[in-house]
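Page header: ASSEMBLY MODEL / two components / 1221 residues total.
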Amino acid sequence: MGTGRLGAPMERHGRTSATSAPSVGEPESGGAEEGRRREPLRRRASSASAPLVGASAEGARWDRPGSYSGPASVSRQRVENLRKKRPLFPWFGLDIGGTLVKLVYFEPKDITAEEEEEEVESLRSIRKYLTSNVAYGSTGIRDVHLELKDLTLCGRKGNLHFIRFPTHDMPAFIQMGRDKNFSSLHTVFCATGGGAYKFEQDFLTIGDLQLCKLDELDCLIKGILYIDSVGFNGRSQCYYFENPADSEKCQKLPFELKNPYPLLLVNIGSGVSILAVYSKDNYKRVTGTSLGGGTFFGLCCLLTGCTTFEEALEMASRGDSTKVDKLVRDIYGGDYERFGLPGWAVASSFGNMMSKEKREAVSKEDLARATLITITNNIGSIARMCALNENINQVVFVGNFLRINTIAMRLLAYALDYWSKGQLKALFSEHEGYFGAVGALLELLKIP
Amino acid sequence: MAECGADGGGSSGDSLDKSITLPPDEIFRNLENAKRFAIDIGGSLTKLAYYSTVQHKVAKVRSFDHSGKDAEQDHEPPYEISVQEEITARLHFIKFENTYIEACLDFIKDHLVNTETKVIQATGGGAYKFKDLIEEKLQLKVDKEDVMTCLIKGCNFVLKNIPHEAFVYQKDTEPEFRFQTNHANIFPYLLVNVGSGVSIVKVETEDRFEWIGGSSIGGGTFWGLGALLTKTKKFDELLHLAAKGQHANVDMLVQDIYGGAHQTLGLSGNLIASSFGKSATADREFSKEDMAKSLLHMISNDIGQLACLYAKLHGLDRVYFGGFFIRGHPVTMHTITYSINFFSKGEVQALFLRHEGYLGAIGAFLKGAEQDNPNQYSWGENYAGSSGLMSTSPALGPTQRARSGTFDLLEMDRLERPLVNLPLLLDPSSYVPDTVDLTDDALARKYWLTCFEEALDGVVKRAVASQPESLDAAERARKFRQKYWSKLQTLRHQPFAYGTLTVRSLLDTREHCLNEFSFPDPYSKVKQQENGVALKCFQCVVQALDALGWEERQLALARGLLAGNVFDWGAKAVSDVLESDPQFGFEEAKKKLQERPWLVDSYSKWLQRLKGPPHKCALIFADNSGIDLILGVFPFVRELLLRGTEVILACNSGPALNDVTYSESLIVAERIAAMDPVVHSALQEERLLLVQTGSSSPCLDLSRLDKGLAVLVRERGADLVVIEGMGRAVHTNYYAALRCESLKLAVLKNAWLAERLGGPLFSVIFKYEVPAE
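Prediction written out in full:
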């Protein structure tokens, strides 16, 4: 393939990340000074998505798809350029979060016989290993149902695979990289998330791999916009809920993001980041909260002794939060009309747990449910306030907290609609937690 | 004083006695005249409010009837003094634990006589629960009032009527509490009430407020979730645990995700990325303290964030926090303050209230008392009858804190006349009356507290001497001593107990304590005598002044004003001289004065000004009775009148030390008018007007002055303000900026203060100021 001539295509290590904020939430009680310093205001993502003029070995200009460079030669020149600029396989995008590592892998399906011949053993073994399994080790999982088929990336056709494993297994992953002799492939790992920094040294010393660290918010936005543009194997990527409060009538319906801007993006990982997106490369981090998926799962572990996110959600699905929470009607006997508060609204999360008798009467399932409702309502409330302050009416919720979490999604949909009197729409996306990793892959391929 | 506790102790009173630390008659004071009850029953504390009348002894002065009499004899006093009973209105608020509610209701019932009250206004979550008990015990009909409406009414009331009600809290700084000066316009503001849940209310006017949002994550979440996680049942104990914990063991911090790289990225590694993020594991145990701390941060941060989002949406920057989650707990005040600073980047201020716990009760009371129009009056916090802010000493755990097992009191006196800003203040919103903040200045605090302690025996002596015919004066004086002494000790340890500690508040507290034990005016006789002596010298002094050339006379008048000011029984140095040498006279006082140039000396500028056109109208705040007023102020007034300047002479409404009161000033003016045609015609033609300040303090708060005075100042277009005396021109108002010319005059009769200002004892302050154009 001859791409070896390109040498190291990525010379931008960490550059775009220098000024960015992590997708984390809240302060602790330390120095207020530090706290204030760290929140960047409106920032442009342009540095991340701008073509890198003169950065590659050849110094050739990277043409944006669709950019105009002469009628006749366009196609040929582009293909040629693509070939030259394409990084070596394998193509990975990595997002190392606080709880989960998200890995996207592009499996080329258009490998020619000639290419196959040239393909080194270790590359082939990686491809086979990843595509022939759905689980890796005891904790790695490939979300087969999310696989994007027949995707064209940098002129190559193939499938995009979505894999996740817990961040605490990162050492094992690096070890595997070493065992499979990744470094011999001269590949570049584009990684985002805080772990890109935390594990950078380990990648280098143990795996002999150089990480290209990328800003996580840049990657997130890039990933979302890209995935939305390619759809979901012919279906819509984005969806919403109709009648979210009614379990009979509730329907998940596709939503076409025709006019994506402005958009409030709420990324619920371990913590929560809220971004206002005004265009492809103009966005700002509005705020964040530390009450996120990590809080739900962490509290559930403490309160119920559960050990997995799935288990926590399963318990929550069987619980009754009204035994745990104090509702408006528990205080006022019905609606609090003076303030227009409905009786069913939660007045105090875990408020009933102030009483010893009620503490003794609740089940673990009730506690799990209440934890889920508390965290979800709070995120909805903060998101709604941000939407109002930023004057944005479509809110997209993403992040792995929403994975298999219909309760939370329906609650967000309902709460946003109810409290905004129908002004705000909650939207969701099929690949909820993988956008950062996709963004990292796009960076590797320099797809703007 | 109510006698009820002493001899009326029925069985219920006895049971109450066993459970509480104060005798009930000192808690439920003035019950015999009580009417209009209100009660606010919260989750753990009950707040009772009632309105009562207090009988005070007051010293009244009255001119002798001179008609048909010959010229007065030498030894006859200039007027007579009589002690009369006066009835004033007072609001009582008592806070106690719910466990005492039954005993308290019994006690009230036993001592409630002659009341026409039929209804009790009730609010708070517990009002429903205790409705039957209250109706049965008190035979009063319970009228339930809306919780938030009461809170907001109460909040408006304290913000308007209690100086230094609101404060910002800064942990680990000295002082921890920074009290805010009251704004003339308190609206609009945001009230964030953190009870079991959180209510966020935007208050726009007295009657208009709107619930703009809330959150279910509040005090109930801390308590309920905390109890589940730590098996600790009590709220206070949970806070105590939290104060000792390390949240980083439970929370996932930025540095946990980023490793060491956060530093190079310019991030704070200590920021919480995910609350309880580290507890998502089955194989670790977490300590109760750490979990409680993590929970506290989680909830405080969340509340602060939402408050900021709502404040931003509604364009508000004043956010008051209340509710049981906050209530004086330094731990939560700190975390909330931190969160607000973080999320608003300093644009929003977290404010707390000294009487936050009483808001509901005050509001419920006000709702029931609408026909008495309490909002039309000005009210003043009675320092003698109020407990002050609880100790927040970190050495005390919440379980040891004074609020357990004791009763907290707040008493407010209805002032007879409404108080308003002096219209001549340059910027009412930034005006701070007091020159030195003793909460801030530890050295000055120590000095003044000691000074007041040392002066106490003298005050007691004078109080007893002022009532020679009274049998129990010595006993009352002993009680006064005890009360004021204990207030001073409280203030040594909790300087913030009644807001910003100042020389003024120390003086006012002493006056309140004296009044409390029926020493309304210990100096009445001294003042009477001094006024008599001074009146006899008036003509002589005026003649001497008139004999001087114009320029000489102006200096003599200024020196006279200052010399008169040496006479001040409030200052220890002078009272020593006066007690030992009663012949110490006006001339000798002048000799004591510092020679020019004075310590602060803008006399030349003043003289220059006098050569110009006369002022339209001068507002003069008088200080002491006797020589100061009669031989210092009146000749000066007379000169101004002769120049064509109208004069408003403002004297205290009530007695304080030897300061001249309004009623005394009326008699003195009348007597002078009888001798002096200039003063006589000026009074007749209303070119000289005597008014009252609305105050009974030896100091002067220009933001709380009698409305009548303010109206007059506006009508007459006052363009000169003269403030004399240490209390009014040095302890207060030394830095007060006015919109017109001002003279601030004082003799420093306190060696420590003089030294601090860089001069010897009896240094002179002559500060003439002209506002910048």
